[in-house]
Amino acid sequence: MKKLFWVSIGIAALAAFFASSHPDGLEKTAEQLGFLAKGAAWRSLMAGYSVPFISNQMFSTAFAGVAGILIIFCGCVGITRLMRKE
Amino acid sequence: MHIPDGFLDPKISAGMMGAAAMALGYCFSKLKAAVTAVVSQHALAVAGKGVQSIASGGRRVLTKLGEQKIYQMGMTASLIFAAQMFNFPISSGTSGHLIGGVFASVILGPFAGAIVIASVLLVQSFFFADGGLLALGANIINMAVLGSLVCYYIYYYLKKIAPEVVAIMAAAWTSVVLAALACSLQIGFSGTIALSEIIPAMMRVHMVIGIAEALITLALVNVFRSMLKEE
């Protein structure tokens, strides 16, 4: 199971370099039907899977992806701790 | 298929938020019952922490198996998060990515599966602005409740009359198309675009993305199961 954690990190990092950068199904539909501009992304810290302090787009995305997995992992550990204490 | 803020009107956003909260609340209660056990007053008294509990009449504690289950949920969530970053090209300048709803519920069961997808959506919208904050309810309904919880039962009933491979693939394909349909209805009824325009456009793309979802789900289920066996 622990292996899976590293597999996830690997996939996230690889995605940064090899994933398609075309818009996804919903975005493309919104673009074609002309309502894409109505969408607004709020200015989150890592909006669009990139971090402001790494200028290289691919490394920036890789960093954001790995950070996302760590966030999920910490959340999972935190919930387990809380439930154990109860 | 993460709906950003601005595509939905406030009424639909709020309604979906309420529906998502109710559905997830139900999933949480089911999950809590599965990962905890009522420890008898006697056992707690022996363990030396029973004084308070005797008054309240036994209580629920996290079981060893329950802890393992939560750990598995975390692993599944991180795998799905990573896989969702991997956009694959579909025809004509469009890409698609995994939702993972059926993968999560086949591995973890329908309630834990829905919670895993909802957690991934929460992290994505909160930290990465992937999917709007106000639209989070709608996204949870589409991908976690319909895509994971509801489509689990397609898998469950189909498995009884067909090979499991077929059940997994059919459920995974349906989860994408169903989520896309719900997404189209929400956007259409918000008055953002005519239903007659968005439904066919969304269906056309997501019927193709669904094929990829089916294949990736099948592969992930096999990988995950073989890793579970190794332990």
TrEMBL record, chain B:
Keywords: Cell membrane, Membrane, Transmembrane, Transmembrane helix, Transport
Pfam families recorded: CbiM (PF01891)
InterPro entries on file: CbiM/NikMN
Compartments reported by the entry: Cell membrane
Listed transmembrane segments: 70-90, 102-127, 133-158, 165-189, 201-224
Keyword Transport: yes
Membrane topology: Multi-pass membrane protein
Top-rank lineage group of the source organism: Bacteria
BP terms from Gene Ontology: transition metal ion transport
Annotated GO CC locations: plasma membrane
Keyword Transport part of the UniProt annotation: yes
Record's protein name: Cobalt/nickel transport system permease protein
Organism (species): Candidatus Saganbacteria bacterium
Lineage, broadest ranks: Bacteria, Bacillati, Saganbacteria
